[in-house]
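Entry type: protein chain
Record version: 2
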Amino acid sequence: MASAHGAAASPALSPAASTAMAAIMDSSKPLDTAAFDAMCDAMESPGSPAGTTAREVLEAFRQHPDAWRRVDGILDRCRSDLARVVAAGVLEDAIMLRWETLGRPEQESVRNFISGKIIKLSSDPAEAKREEVFLTKLDVLLVGVLKQDWPHRWPSFIDEMNSSSRAMGEGVCANNMRILRLLSEEVFDLGSGVVADLTSDRRQKLQASLSSELKKIFNLIAFVAASSTSVGTLTETLRALQKYLSWVPASLVLETDLVATLTAKFLPAPAFRTITLDCLTEVVGAEGSEDARWAPRIMEMFGGVMATMARVIPPGADIPGTVRSAKARGSQAEPILVHRLTLFLSGIFRRHLRCLEGSEALRPMVLQGLAYLLGAIRVDDKDLCKLVAEFWRDFSRDLFDTAAAAVSRAGGPSAALAAFTAATGGADAAKGASADAALHGAMAAHPRVMNYSRLLSELRLVGTELMPKPEEVLVEKDASGDVVRSFTRDTDALALYDVMREMMVYLTHLDPADTDGIIVAKLSRQVDGSEWSWERLNALCWAAGSVSGTMSEEHEKRFLITVIRDLLHLVTLRPGKNNKAVVASNIMYVVGQYPRFLSSHWKFLKTVVYKLFEFMHERHEGVQDMACDTFLKLAQRCSSCFVALQPRESRTFVEELVSNVDTIIADLEPHQVQAFFEAAGCMVAAHPNMSTQESLTDALLRLPREALDAHVARAASSLDSLRSADATRDLSRIFANYERVARAVGRGFSRHAASVFLTVLSLYRTYTGFVSAGAATMGTMAVTMADGAAIQRVRRAILGFLRAFVRNNRDKAVLMEHFMPHLVKASGRADVCMVESFAGEPPLARLPEVLDVFRAAALTLKTDGTAVLSSIVPRLLRPAVELISANYDDHPDMRVALYRFTQTLSRHCAPALFAMAPADQKLYLDTLLWGIKHHNPFVAERAGLALRDFLGALAGSPGEHASAFFCAFAVTMVHDLLFVLTDRMHKAQFVVHVELLRGLFDVLANTTLIPRPIWDQASEPQAAGTTNSQYVCGRIASSLASAFPNLTREQVHRFVSGLADTSKPVAAYRTSVRDFLIESLSFNVSDSAALWRAEQAAKLASEHERKAAVPGLQKAAAQPALGMRPDAAAQAAGGDHASQLASMAVLDDMDDDDF
């Protein structure tokens, strides 16, 4: 590999490093491997002069374009592991980055060196074992060469693999199988992201080439399987086979004897059992395997597997106990076998259950296979439990769909679902009650459901015993056995809960009486003490809550009354703080899941609420938190019940509530008080009379208002009283309560807000003056000191209240006439106007919540606030940008607030942006372009979406202002977008960046929008007939050629031409950009997922729609509120998060109500 071609030492090296580097790269002499080893050894002392020099030299060597020429000597003769790591990395870079710059002889030299080294190592079993890691790295390098050269420059590769495997011994054969496996992974394993260094065109060609060689590869695998006696070789062969089975057509496998060989020869052998199951799992999941012509092969395979496994795991075996015992003695064989068997059974049942259950001979084996899965779900392994639970969910859904279609008059699921809606309390609940028994009876009598009735009952029992903790439960047992408030969020447990909850929903639809009976029977054993334990009670109650919405109203009433009655009985039967906390948390969780029942049964609802008030006085933080959260949930979901005059009541519940606020909240912590006030505000908002809403709001806020007035009165005598710790603490809490009420009540809060608005602004100005005075005397550190931090908390609380009020007041006229002038009115005194005081404050004292207040105003007023917003936006942007422009990291809260604000402006208030002066528009654009370069993904994403919406609105309003804007800034925007696309730091925003590029080139081609050239012909003369698109393409082609010298002129031209071609479909446009980024190596293997995210996003939308169609699948909190106004319902649900997740990889649908 050595050549006479030399290279100069890398620049900027120290003299010692430069001398060492020159010696290494001097190709006129053999490489001094001892000196190279010594240099690597010096890296173990990084602080020493020798270590510093070594690090400098090795880094320069790694980056040197001709370093690969010295790699053979290092790999052959150096003893240092680090030396070989460095050399292998250099060789990998040469293959990945510089392959096309090498001459053909040099490429063959590299290829032959790697191949020879692999054969030499793998031929000697002892050497191969000792150098296993190095050999694997060489295999990876060879696959890298294949991705560059095969098949066009190395057409004989597969034939060479065949001949060497047959002629050179077991070691070479085993390693060849490893290489074939790695090649399949690189070319076809899209899910792992390893194909990020392949363009779509190159990947397709490699896939076609590998597919065309499948017969040779399978013949080789069959030869090895039949003739080899080495466990290692056969294992590698089966591992390679598994990778090919994951993508080959089912026909290619099932028309041969391969499956029979796997089942008869390898499955019975313990050494090959798990990998054989992996192979068979791929076969049953292969595309096309459901074809009826392959049914005999599938049934034969299943019978063979089950016959073998019956000897390994006898029917009726205690699978959880077997796994537990194996782990106790340190064995992993049994757990791995159970996991692989689970994968096989769940895979074959998902795709071929109808075929298998149609065979009378196989039916007992089907039931035995399902029994294995029923045992596997009880194994103490989170991953396995989730895997099996997902199968049981899908199995239950399949039975549900089958039965629903059968009972539908139209013969399809839609009519059955309509019947379910009625049966579970839909539009005609009365009819639903009578239809319930017939409907569920018909479903339970369906032949498929009856075949599995016993198994389904056992599965319901599993659900009641293993249900994980839902998000709403806020207590847990700590390490010492006490029940405490939980603060961590177990995402694995929540994911498993969602799966098992859906499973229980389908199972209950199939037979609600059985679910009812199991839960009630087990709960009675909790009461009588025969099965009492916290864990069992928790799982049982979580299961009871999970089936909300699956029964008819009458059935649900009987069920829930029984459950709550027994739980209340447990409160008295099981004294003690810990016991009471557990039972109380379960009562609150269960009732919170059944708002439909509670809204229809006032006495029960009232009893539950009074029980919650009782729990609010429990001296247990978790219980009090759950009580407040549950009260809030009921207030949101059953709000109309609390404002209606109920039978035999002298006044509405909300009137009684507001008159007893002081008693109810006496033992609550501040954050719990805030939850209470929000709940009460939800009730107030449900009242149909606006005047009554206003009166109730005044009554509800009597205590905070009195405390506020008291502080204001003391301040009238001495402003310094507002600096006291008591005052800052009290006022922070007061305005936090005001914020929650304002957010919940909405328009009905206006009268109370008007009564305190000027007082609030006066307090804000006073505290702002405190901040400025402190900064003037003590410098900016005054803001961070204890007194300054307390003052800032008050200001934040005031701004939070103002933001909530402005956002939730839907009366734009009232807002514009009575409130906005006080916030934005220009004045000679900077401290009077909130906008001006924001700019005049010390930079470190500026609060991002100011931007949130005006973002709320923009969301509420939209285009009605054009005149106001166009004047204040520049005055807010400048001080905010000034604060954060030093770098990309400081003041993250201000960055987030700024770019949320800009996205709202771009989406809802574009006319206000167009009305700004040109200099202010440039400031706005510069702010967005700077934002997309941020490393914080949230900031970069919001800035990108804001830019997209802004440019879209501008392009949709053609005129001189739009033409002038695009003429001035089109080239800058294209350059900045290409910068972030190619800088490796913004993969997550790939989709929106491509969308922006496409939109800009659309604009450039639009002669109506831009009727004149965007360049200055005097300074940049262009040929006659040059279009704006051509001009921009020329500019960026020149920039890209300079930035990426590794790309050919043809590659750059192809990419730039593709950018200008906006007529192609969006997916094709995105692919062309993705391919260029891969070619330029701007995206590496580890971060390729973002490039493919857009192709996966649609699956989320489909899943959301499916859940919405089945009663009970959506959680109670995600369902529309009962008797709540639409805007409050949306707010209570926290926005349409499912649709946000399903839109694109980025949060395209901004959560406007996320305050």
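Comment: The first strand starts at residue 475 and ends at 477.
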